[in-house]
Amino acid sequence: EIVMTQSPATLSVSPGERATLSCRASQSVSSKLAWYQQKPGQAPRLLIFGASTRATDIPARFSGSGSGTEFTLTISSLQSEDFAVYYCQHYNNWPFTFGPGTKVDIK
Amino acid sequence: EVQLVESGGGLVQPGRSLRLSCAASGFTFDDYAMHWVRQAPGKGLEWVSGINWKSSTIGYADSVKGRFTIARDNAKNSLYLQMNSLRAEDTALYYCAKDIHLAVAGNFDYWGQGTLVTVSS
Q1: For testing the chain A interface, which of B1, B27, B45, B58 should be mutated: the one with the most A CBs within 10 Å?
Q2: Are A22 and A72 in contact (CB under 8 A)?
Q3: What is the pLDDT of residues B26-44, one digit of tens each?
Q4: What is the pLDDT of residues B59-69, one digit of tens each?
Q5: Nearest to B51, CA basis, from B116, B108, B118, B117
Q6: Which residues have CB under 8 Å from B107's CB, separation 6+?
Q7: Residue A57 with chain B: CB contacts under 8 Å
Q8: Residue A58: closest C-alpha in chain B
Q9: Nearest neighbour of B107 by CB, restricted to A91, A98, A99
Q10: Is B16 helix (H, G, I), strand (E, B) or coil?
């Protein structure tokens, strides 16, 4: 099983600032990496798949990069609605696994 | 509008069984793979199981392999999860999630609101 790790666990950011979230896989997952956003009491929402492709209706301020074992999600200018928990997930092979999440909160 | 509505959760004793259902609408169900993902209270996400459009490719997390069985009925636009030999650590909110592809791509673009399973004596 591929183990996903994320850093930092919590990221405190002011509105309008840039946020950079990291995700690491215990072995290469090529570009088969997705990012999800989850707000309290809501189901997760797909943001990015294929490491860098934005899902439908996802704003351009969200961008993903990386391949192999190191990945980054960047939110270029944080809006109030972006404060949430972000999970990375690989889908290179069974079983698919998620990282533990990064909580982005208001500084 | 895509809708996924889970049902069948509840309180169950350890060792007993439960069957979850997911009713899908707003898209052509048999054009997509489907999955179950769970979230223990206050914890992160865990992929549980996935099934392709024609039920020929099925996968499970190691934590549920041999105890859980995923199935789908394309005629009824429904996804199921049969959970046997339940353990306290299976306590979670269980989400039904739609894949972006008919084969198992592993990306989940629509999610239900979940059904809560509590395993306790």
Answers
A1: B45
A2: yes
A3: 999 999 999 999 999 999 9
A4: 999 999 999 99
A5: B108
A6: A34, A46, A49, A55, A91, B99, B100, B101
A7: none
A8: B109
A9: A91
A10: coil
